[in-house]
Write a structure and sequence with these properties.
Layout (H helix, E strand, L loop, with lengths): L3 H22 L2 H11 L5 H4 L1 H42 L1 H7 L2 H28 L6 H27 L3 H10 L3 H12 L3 H19 L27 H21 L1 H8 L4 H4 L2 H19 L6 H20 L3 H15 L2 H10 L6 H10 L3 H16 L1 H21 L11
Helix pairs in contact: 1-6, 1-7, 2-7, 2-9, 2-12, 4-6, 4-10, 4-18, 4-19, 5-6, 5-10, 6-7, 6-18, 7-14, 7-17, 11-16, 11-17, 11-18, 11-19, 11-20, 14-16, 15-16, 15-17, 15-20, 19-20
Length: 421
């Protein structure tokens, strides 16, 4: 049993990790317009390959991550994940020098690989380090670390790489000389070298610190209580986990729609790049408010499954607001989706891994695969925008997702949870 001092230290260390992968993850909202400009991309679908490359890494690496964690344990696995992320950040340097979009995407994929390992370790760790009934509260605390970092990251990176973005865009559009235009693009591309070089060093130092930290190893492979009576022989015999994977897939999709696509949406309705580059921060500050509310209310005043159901209903209502509004009002509704989304991950993850026992690591890996929703759903949006328009496309993408999340909260999370065969 951990002492209060060790418990607090463990929570603090994991909080630092959530801050780091929040900072890295939500840089995508700035990278989308930056790389569209710097790499001279022609469509939003091309630019949204940023989220595709980043989030698809979770799909391919989540299950290998579970096997790695079985060999390394949680602490060493987290350290390894940080090292892989540092390598991904380093790839941005040659990518910027060559202004090579494919190499940028490779760097994002490698960063996603590291995050897949980091998240496969840290999410079940924070879920089972204390009582499962209060897991949503602990994940909400981690969410604040994650989203505060996420709110800061587009402001920091945007101030460096998108400084004077509208003026640069105008110069590129008016440049007729190929050499002048190429120089402008090269100067713009080089702006990411310094921040990503610093990031790689910081990530490497953190990896070393985690490796030598007193973070305790926890055991999830044993069985106790009702799990001792559970005769299920593989992870696919838990229906609520399977439903939870789809739920997490759809949730991450709508989270990315609200957090990363908000800038693209703003540009599509005529708002300048100088303004849209910080829209991601509005969504993330909205999420922070939701997390604080979750810490106060879960589980003292509301169960985590009820909080999930209420969040889904709020998401549907705000999505209707996006559809029936225009201009900055629609941007406000999208940003407020951050509030609706805040308690979804903290509720879905513990509800889906509860009672898995020795299958916890593999079940966590399957859930982490669901993060690939952040790759697929924005691409679907980008493909239907030309025919439906931004408001209708946004509505018809996110509302069905929220409807399924509501089903999971009300019914899906309980299917098969109490069966013992």
């Amino acid at each position: 049993m951990q002492t209060n001092k060790n418990y607090f230290l463990s929570i603090s260390i994991i909080g630092v990790l959530f801050f780091i992968f929040g900072f890295v993850t939500w840089l995508n909202g700035t990278l989308i317009p930056f790389l569209k400009l710097a790499c001279d991309l022609q469509t939003d679908a091309e630019a949204l390959l940023v989220t595709f490359a980043f989030y698809m890494a979770y799909f391919f690496l989540a299950i290998p991550s579970s096997f790695i964690l079985n060999k390394t344990g949680f602490k060493k696995g987290m350290s390894l994940g940080l090292m892989v992320m540092a390598l991904g950040a380093l790839l941005f340097i040659p990518a910027a020098m060559q202004r090579n979009f494919s190499l940028f995407l490779s760097g994002l994929f490698v960063q996603g690989m590291g995050l897949a390992l980091l998240q496969t370790a840290s999410n079940p760790y924070i879920s089972v380090i204390g009582p499962i009934e209060s897991a949503a509260k602990r994940i909400s605390i981690m969410g604040i670390c994650n989203k505060v970092a996420g709110a800061l990251s587009p402001l920091v990176l945007g101030a460096i790489v998108l400084k004077g973005a509208s003026e640069t865009e105008a110069q590129l559009n008016s440049a007729t000389d190929v050499a002048i235009r190429s120089n402008l693009l090269q100067e713009l591309s080089h702006r990411v070298i310094m921040p990503y070089g610093i990031m790689s060093v910081v990530l490497l130092l953190l990896a070393i610190m985690i490796y030598f930290s007193p973070l305790p190893e926890i055991e999830t492979d044993g069985t106790s209580g009702k799990e001792k009576q559970n005769k299920r022989t593989n992870v696919f015999q838990f229906p609520y986990l399977m439903l939870g994977i789809l739920c997490l897939f759809l949730y991450v999709g709508v989270e990315v729609m609200a957090g990363d696509v908000i800038g693209t949406y703003g540009k599509a309705i005529g708002i300048s790049l100088d303004e849209t580059k910080v829209f991601t921060s509005y969504t993330l500050w909205s999420m922070v408010v939701g997390y604080i509310l979750g810490i106060i209310t879960i589980p003292k005043y509301i169960k985590q499954q009820n909080a999930l159901a209420l969040s889904a209903l709020v998401g549907i209502a705000l999505s209707v607001g996006v559809y029936f509004s225009t201009g900055y009002t629609s941007i406000v509704f999208i940003a407020l989706l951050g509030f609706a989304n805040a308690l979804m991950w903290p509720a879905i993850f513990p509800l889906a891994i509860e009672g898995l026992g020795r299958f916890t690591k593999f079940g966590s890996a399957l859930l982490i695969m669901g993060i690939s929703g952040g790759a697929i759903i924005p691409q679907v949006y980008a493909r239907i925008v030309p025919s439906l328009g931004p408001a209708a496309a946004f509505f018809w993408i996110v509302v069905p997702c929220y409807a399924y999340i509501l089903f999971f909260a009300l019914r899906g999370q309980a299917i098969g949870k109490n069966q013992n065969n």
